[in-house]
């Protein structure tokens, strides 16, 4: 079962003049905002304290299992408050570098199964345009797998919202998009009762640089929509900005160096810089070989291939030059993280609760048996003929609860600080192999794999948990992660006992609940829009 985490007041009390007055340093009880309809209701009657400071064995044992209804004796009176809804406590995370005042709670309350559809009068599904080329996909075009993935999504939505009655609209042709959205925005009644399921992660006209332009357009038209806003998408598109922000928040990141081949301020093409100078630049920032090279900005693993792993200055220089010729001249050179890779899926919003799906570990065992580089890159996303597409599996992570608590807290801080909304995915990787007792392995041939096995329960004191969690470093933040039926979020949901349809409904629920709690949209200036 996934966990539900509420984060309130994730701010610096000392420096933020807008720190909310309702957040006091004492233990509080806060009632969750009521959803727009009964269909969105999430039970929160079973509560558990998320103690990030596990200072004693006794305290750890009482809260060792995430989602347990047990509590420490110090908080028995607090938990006994009638219908309190949420338990908050005033603790700092063990990592003092985080420098944040965190209030966290966990409950066993989760979405029901099956998840009923939210009461959305008119649903618009906004997709990439299959009639246009799409740079980054295999052969820069839409393939049979891409179109089949769409149909699986439509198969979920069409039985619930009737297209012929105007309850469901699918917008795929971007040449018509301004006119179609403008017509909806011009109708006050329709505008207030429509919700845009924004799945256009390819960007406007399939231009990844214009992914943020889609929600920006929706905001200009005052249309309610799912997922991250334009600021969040723009920020997270730049991996250098994300990593710098994460480090400032105390989230472990790889050692890295930046090479700005496209910089107009100090433009030195890699072909002129030379291998020795580039090597000196990288080593000066503490990055040694093997190193990992990837574009500083981008999406869909563009520029992340088996050549990204470099073992010396010559390989580094050759690949940076190659990326430069692909107009990907700004790159990050990081320490190569050789340990297990994890993905954390989050559904929700900080003001109403964050639901953490079961954590995945990427199983590279079949790839390593082929003596291939164990990475998730372009080949694993877009090439059905590649062993990276066929041989990589996802297992439930076996990290102990005390480490998961720290990872969840860091994800929650990043979720809030980067402006994520409704759902997100955070990818991490350990800097070296972890102990076998906390590393998931594939079931032997002929044995049935049990995706729902619970994580390992092993006692670690606070220092041990912090040390282990400190080795698990941030790879990437995905504010609008893949929604595909066979993607990571779908795997996480399946481990939790949810179907693909359940996953889609969960995302729609939290998005619709969020926008219904906001002020009603003002009328847009649609009379000034000339489609």
From TrEMBL:
Ranges where the ATP-grasp domain occurs: 243-509
Residues that span the membrane, as ranges: none
SUPFAM superfamilies: Glutathione synthetase ATP-binding domain-like
InterPro entries documented for this protein: ATP-grasp, ATP_grasp_subdomain_1, Dala_Dala_lig_C
Molecular function terms from GO: ATP binding; D-alanine-D-alanine ligase activity; metal ion binding
Segments of this protein annotated with the region Disordered: 51-82
Stretches with biased composition (Low complexity): 62-72
Pfam families xref list: Dala_Dala_lig_C
Claim: Cytoplasm is one of the keywords in the record: no
Protein family per UniProt: Belongs to the D-alanine--D-alanine ligase family.
Protein's name in the database: ATP-grasp domain-containing protein
Taxonomy of the source species: Eukaryota, Fungi, Fungi incertae sedis, Blastocladiomycota, Blastocladiomycetes
């Amino acid at each position: 079962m996934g966990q539900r985490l509420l984060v309130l007041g994730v701010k610096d009390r000392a420096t933020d003049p807008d720190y909310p007055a309702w957040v006091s340093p004492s233990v509080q009880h806060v009632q969750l905002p009521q959803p727009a309809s009964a269909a969105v209701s999430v039970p929160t009657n079973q509560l558990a304290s998320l103690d990030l400071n596990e200072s004693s064995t006794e305290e750890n044992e009482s809260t060792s299992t995430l989602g347990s209804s047990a509590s420490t004796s110090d908080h028995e009176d607090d938990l006994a408050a009638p219908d309190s809804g949420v338990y908050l406590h005033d603790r700092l995370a063990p990592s003092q570098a985080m420098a944040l005042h965190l209030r966290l709670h966990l409950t066993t309350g989760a979405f029901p199964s099956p998840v009923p559809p939210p009461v959305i009068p008119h649903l618009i599904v906004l997709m990439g345009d299959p009639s246009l080329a799409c740079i980054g996909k295999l052969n820069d075009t839409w393939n049979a797998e891409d179109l089949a993935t769409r149909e699986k999504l439509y198969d979920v939505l069409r039985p619930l919202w009737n297209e012929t009655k105007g309850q469901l609209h699918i917008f795929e042709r971007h040449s018509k998009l301004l006119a179609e959205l403008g017509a909806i925005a011009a109708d006050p009644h329709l505008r207030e009762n429509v919700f845009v399921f924004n799945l256009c992660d390819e960007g406007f006209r399939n231009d990844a640089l214009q992914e943020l332009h889609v929600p920006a357009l929706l905001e200009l038209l005052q249309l309610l929509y799912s997922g991250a806003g334009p600021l969040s998408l723009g920020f997270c598109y730049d991996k250098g900005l994300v990593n710098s922000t994460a480090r400032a928040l105390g989230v472990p990141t790889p050692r890295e160096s930046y090479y700005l081949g496209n910089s107009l301020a100090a433009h030195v093409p890699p072909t002129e810089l030379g291998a020795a100078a580039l090597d000196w630049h990288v080593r000066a920032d503490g990055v040694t070989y093997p190193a990992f090279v990837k574009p500083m900005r981008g999406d869909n693993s563009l520029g992340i291939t088996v050549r990204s792993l470099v073992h010396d200055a010559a390989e580094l220089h050759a690949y940076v030059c190659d990326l430069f010729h692909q107009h990907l001249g700004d790159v990050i050179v990081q320490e190569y993280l050789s340990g297990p890779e994890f993905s954390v899926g989050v559904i929700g919003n900080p003001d109403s609760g964050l639901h953490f799906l079961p954590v995945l570990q990427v199983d590279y065992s079949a790839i390593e048996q082929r003596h291939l580089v164990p990475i998730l890159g372009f080949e694993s996303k877009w090439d059905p003929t590649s062993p990276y597409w066929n041989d990589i599996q996802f297992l439930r992570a076996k990290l102990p609860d005390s480490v998961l608590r720290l990872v969840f807290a860091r994800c929650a801080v990043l979720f809030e600080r980067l402006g994520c909304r409704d759902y997100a995915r955070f990818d991490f990787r350990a800097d070296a192999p972890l102990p076998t007792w906390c590393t998931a392995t594939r079931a032997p041939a002929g044995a049935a794999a049990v995706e729902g096995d619970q994580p390992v329960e092993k006692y670690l004191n606070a220092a041990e948990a912090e040390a282990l969690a400190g080795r698990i470093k941030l790879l990437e933040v995905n504010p609008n992660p893949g929604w595909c039926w066979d993607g990571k979020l779908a795997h996480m949901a399946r481990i939790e006992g949810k179907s693909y349809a359940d996953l889609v409904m969960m995302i729609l629920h939290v998005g619709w609940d969020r926008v219904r709690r906001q002020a009603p949209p003002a009328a847009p200036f649609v009379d000034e829009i000339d489609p």
